[in-house]
């Protein structure tokens, strides 16, 4: 193998390794309690993730806010990923012009040994119940929350209403993984709903079933739990 072929092999290995790391980050999300948050990598580009958060309490209760998570080119050996709302959101931590969530307060830099994408999503969930941001991205929203909370709540509720109005909009992209919603149709959705609500039947004679212990990445088998 000549020098050029070796370089090509190294480059190919680097690409596969990076894709593996990104998919490992995505699988890691499934072990965390990310209440109301749904996210999936783009079908066309694994460096772009589409997401939506259903806010179920607080000032923004009832809001359904879309966002895009973008990974830097050399992830995880690079700067902090960016998360930008595509839904309108009036919030001290969100830039009013770009929709970008200010992550510098909790991620001043990205340490691949300690930082993971699920932590960004945990922070995303946290901001909807915490408005006192030390380094606000929207100073107007921050000041209004401190000095005129009634007006702030009105603006927040406007965002909630707007998110509901655009819930069923056509997707802005043809990407197969873009998260879309359709109004409930009993003829289409009742069968799936009933199936999900039906208690799962267990087969006591089955073998090889395994789970992951809560709070860890350690798996255990059914036999070990008896």
Brief rundown of the structure:
The protein is an alpha+beta fold and about 230 residues long.
Descriptive report:
By secondary structure, the chain is of the alpha+beta class. Helices cover 35% and strands 13% of the residues. A four-stranded antiparallel sheet has the order 1-2-3-4. It has a two-stranded antiparallel sheet with strand order 5-6. β5 and β6 (219-221) form a beta hairpin.
User: What structural category arises from helix and sheet content?
Assistant: alpha+beta
Topology order in helix (H) and strand (E) letters: HEEEEHHHHEEH
Tell me the major beta sheet: 4 strands, antiparallel
Kindly state the percentage of residues in helix.
25-40%
Share of β-strand residues: 5-15%
Count the DSSP helices: 6
Number of strands: 6
- Report low-confidence residues grouped into runs of 5 or more: 204-226
The end-to-end distance, rounded to whole angstroms, is 55 Å
| Average pLDDT, all residues | 86
Shape: globular
Order of strands across the main sheet: 1-2-3-4
Rg of Cα set: 21 Å
